[in-house]
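Collaborator request, handled under Task 6.
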Amino acid sequence: MAYNPTVPMANQKIEASQQPIADNFAALAPFGNGYGSFTNQSTPPTFATGVDGVYTQNNATTGINELYIHKQSAAGVKEIPMTASILSLSTPTANSSGWTYLPSGILILWGSVTSATGLSTITLSGGYPSFGAILNISLTPFSSSTSDANFAVRLVSIDSTTQFKVFLSSRTSTGSGTGGFQYMAIGR
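Structure tokens returned to the collaborator:
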């Protein structure tokens, strides 16, 4: 039985509204008890035009049942796998790569790179969902030692939905070497 938002009506007598109110509580009981139970869908369900919804379906990237939001947007309807992330596949460790979706549909990818000083092209690949567009990339130098890493890393360009360029250099001197950095790419 479906939830009826028009119950009770202002002019309804108590005896006429008791059963519809009880039916509404029954329809909402799974959510009111702190959980929702969703049947896994083989394909996205059909929602009426202009209606948002929530459902579960196996995700192509994770291969497991994930919670989706069916969302209206300026670009049309989006099916957002809001629980899909690296956590569905493994337990990430420090300096490892990973990814996650936000309920808004924003995709975040992160990882660690070791590179020689100078200009480097970084390619995002390997088990990640792909970007439609990269909106921002943040970079942070790192070192596995407890001493100063003495490296700076700068974003040069975002070349495509899978590549960006960085320039790695010593902070305090000239010359070549190798340094590490972590990145976080945000996109849709």
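The cover message to the collaborator said: "The chain has three domains: 1-27, 42-84, 87-187. The mean pLDDT is 85. Please let us know whether this matches your experimental observations."
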